[in-house]
Recover the amino acids of this structure.
């Protein structure tokens, strides 16, 4: 059974997409079968996974509005066992399109449930060990769809001034979803991103976040690393672009840490 993880933080530019791309790649490299669903109109996760705009025939927009199944929208990537449902600018119109639909918050969950009987591009069933949903920087109907479809939310937090700002709003939204639409939604974890070891502020922010979230914060911290920001312009995950850079190594460690936690949870 897939574990569905919504990568969410309504704050822009905190590393949601970089995490979706590189955590997805790292998990696939460990041998997991992974699907990344790009739910952001910017389409950055699709670009970073090498999917040109012209190749995005069907996107998560079509899935959300019911014009395509997940199997019709899914594409393979350069990484074996890593697939993507691309996103595009049409997603900006989802809110309006679904406005009067009483099931509007369940679109993605229903599409995922229907996928069980569909076939992936490699001829295998549409089954994945993990599904990572890259959310837009808002608490819109798209992010709610992701939280309703998910088992858990992964929150990237940038190690800078005001990192915790807006977080109470994110937690309130998670609570609202839990209290109604998806009672079993959990917080998978908080991942600190763009950590700068030379900057006292990074350490201070990391300390504050750890005292607030405790063990929910991964030990692995993603450093600020220019290779992570260069890689998307080559249409490659950093782990393919430069697997030895500090950013790639950190995402590989994050994947290992998540799998270790998963093993501990299932043994408990
Ligand atoms: P948005 O809210 O706009 O969707 P996001 O939360 O998805 O943004 P990213 O796109 O992953 O954030 O990252 C924002 C910018 O910071 C990008 O240019 C990305 O390449 C860069 N970036 C992300 N993580 C790192 C890092 N660890 N080191 C250096 N640059 C990074
Ligand atoms: Mg993004």
């Amino acid at each position: 059974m897939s574990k569905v993880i919504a990568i969410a933080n309504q704050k822009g530019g905190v590393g949601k997409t970089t995490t979706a791309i590189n955590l997805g790649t790292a998990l696939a490299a460990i041998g997991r079968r992974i699907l990344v669903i790009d739910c952001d109109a910017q389409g950055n996760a699709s670009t970073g996974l090498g999917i040109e705009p012209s190749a995005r025939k069907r996107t998560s927009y079509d899935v959300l509005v019911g014009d395509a199944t997940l199997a019709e929208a899914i594409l393979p990537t350069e990484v074996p066992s890593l697939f993507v449902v691309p996103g595009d600018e049409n997603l900006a119109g989802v809110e309006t399109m679904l406005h009067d639909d009483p099931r509007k918050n369940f679109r993605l969950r229903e599409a995922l449930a229907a996928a069980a009987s569909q076939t992936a591009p490699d001829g295998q069933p549409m089954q994945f060990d993990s599904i990572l949903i890259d959310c837009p920087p808002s608490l819109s109907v798209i992010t709610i769809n992701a939280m309703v479809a998910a088992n858990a939310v992964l929150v990237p937090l940038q190690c800078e001034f005001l990192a915790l700002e807006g977080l109470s709003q994110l937690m309130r939204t998670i609570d609202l979803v839990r209290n109604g639409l998806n009672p079993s939604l959990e917080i998978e974890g908080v991942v600190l991103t763009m950590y700068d070891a030379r900057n006292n502020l990074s350490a201070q922010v990391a300390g504050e976040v750890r005292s607030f979230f405790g063990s929910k914060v991964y030990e692995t911290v993603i450093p600020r690393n220019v290779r992570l920001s260069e890689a998307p312009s080559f249409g490659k995950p950093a782990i393919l672009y430069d697997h030895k850079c500090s950013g790639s190594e950190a995402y590989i460690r994050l994947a290992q840490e998540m799998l270790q936690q998963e093993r501990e949870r299932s043994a408990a």
Notes: Strands lie at 3-7, 34-38, 75-76, 82-85, 130-134, 152-158, 186-193. The pocket of magnesium ion (ligand 2) is lined by residues 16-17, 40, 44, 134 (CB under 6 Å). The mean pLDDT is 96. The chain is about 40% helix and 15% strand.
